Amino acid sequence: MSTYALSKLLREVNRNPVTRARYFEDAAAVAAEFDLTAEERKALLEKDIGALYRFGVHGLILRPFTLIHKMPEPEYLQAIRS
User: Fold this and answer.
1) How far apart (Å, rounded) are the C-alpha atoms in residues 51 and 55?
2) How far is the CA of 33 from the CAs of 26, 29, 41, 47, 73, in angstroms?
3) I want to staple 49 with a disulfide (CB 3.0 to 4.6 A). Which of 2, 6, 41, 79 is the partner?
4) How far is it, in rounded angstroms, from Cα 41 to Cα 47?
5) What are the tens digits of pLDDT across the range 26-64?
6) Does residue 49 contact residue 17 with C-beta atoms inside 8 Å?
7) Angstrom distances, CA of residue 34 to CA of 1, 8, 27, 74, 81
8) This prediction's pTM
9) What share of the chain is helix, strand, coil (3-state, %, to 5)?
10) What is the per-residue pLDDT for 82?
11) Which of 72, 74, 6 is nearest to 43 (CA)?
């Protein structure tokens, strides 16, 4: 697992407007720049929040990521609790 790389990617999307714009244009291309496992890449591209959480992404990184995707809080909480 490469939790560090996954967390770093999400943090960059959350905080860096240039990376965020690139991510929304081509998420797969941005993901390819980070050392992710196939499962992590799949969860990221499918926005599988539960899987990202299980892979070790901290809520303080994950919740802002879900906010930029306009995910309501109840949906987010359900995803990390399942």
Assistant:
1) 6
2) 12, 7, 11, 18, 29
3) 79
4) 10
5) 999 999 999 999 999 999 999 999 999 999 999 999 999
6) no
7) 12, 8, 11, 30, 27
8) 0.91
9) 75, 0, 25
10) 86
11) 6
